[in-house]
Amino acid sequence: MYADTQNDITRQVVRVAQLLLAYGAESDLVEEISQRLGRALGLGSVELSISSNSLVLTSLVHGRCITTTRRIREHGINMRVVCELQRICLLAEKGLYGPNEVRKRVERIRPKTYPAYLVIPMIGLSCASFCHLFGGDWMASVITFVASAIGMSARLFLARRHFNPLVIFSITAFVTTAVAQLGYECPLTKTPELAMAASVLMLVPGFPMINAISDMVKGHMNVGISRWGHATLLTVASVIGITIAMQLGGKFL
Amino acid sequence: MNLLITLINDALFSAIPAVGFAMVFNVPRRFLPYCALAGALGHSFRTLILHFGLPIEWATFAAAALVGTITIAFARRHLAPPLLYAVAAIIPMIPGTYAFNTVIALVQLTAQSQVSPELTGAVISNGLKTVFILGALSVGLALPSLLYFRTRPVI
Lengths: 253, 155
Prior knowledge:
Radius of gyration of chain B: 18 Å
Structural class of chain B: mainly alpha
Number of strands of chain A: 3
Oligomer: heterodimer
Helix content of chain A: 55-70%
Number of helices of chain B: 6
Distance between the termini of chain B: 40 Å
Shape of chain B: globular
Low-confidence stretches of chain B: none
């Protein structure tokens, strides 16, 4: 293999690994996919070192190493991209895709998201179902639906303007709790506290927490700890929003 | 009969959040029904075990292991990563209320001038439940790959 070819293939493999990490795959999956893709495209071996915000990859062919570093910026979770990259890896492994096809298909990937008019009502319904599962009455579920739908629209609005995730989480928590407190004001429901607890559940950073623990269990200690730290920070940010709303409402403190 | 109605109610109302959060994670549309199925099965299985009097941590662990096994079957069929289904499916089991109660008690504790034993107790017991249920969830989810797929990839 020529040095140029190795360079090109290494760049594609590192691009795939970078995309996987940016869109929220766990470290074990990233390592597995990039090693399999590299071997399928003809590299001797691929070694990765993943840290919280960067990635170092070394490819080895005939005793010649190429090492390259990439910075990773979080883009939010998008399973569509992860799924697509896994597909590309499998196709390359079966021999259907060579380096050129892989490059074309990776370039074509767009992180499509669901439109807001679908996501907002679904999140409202989800939080209303949580309220129902916790034993809240029907009116509490309705209040939860309204509060979390308004909160989710605020979250999408802020996310489109590229605010820091911590700021987004606090403002969303504030808005959601402020609306959910209406359950205390008007005597519609007997379980206003459940409405309040259920409507902020959309802010629980479930994906980062599960990723963090499964990274740590599978031996990627530093990435796991940094993801855990990020998840904790997000939780603290939403707690700050909830607390401010509660203090303004005068319910607890 | 009562148990059956509870289980169906459970399955129905945990399938909705599974789909809702799967949409937040941008799971492709053709996989959404499988997320709903895995979420409904997992949560109603946990309710069934809780009905027989097991503690919630063990029930969550068993339910997460079930979700992990089902999603590996889905993943092998569709050639997609198993976490795609699994994370949306276990969202209904995330200990949100325990976490919420921990934090509220913590905030109330901060606002007071002296430490009160009730609030400290609430922080400790709710916080421990949160951490252990979360641990049970993710270790249960990883169980198939820890026990069975040790040296080979899932797909």
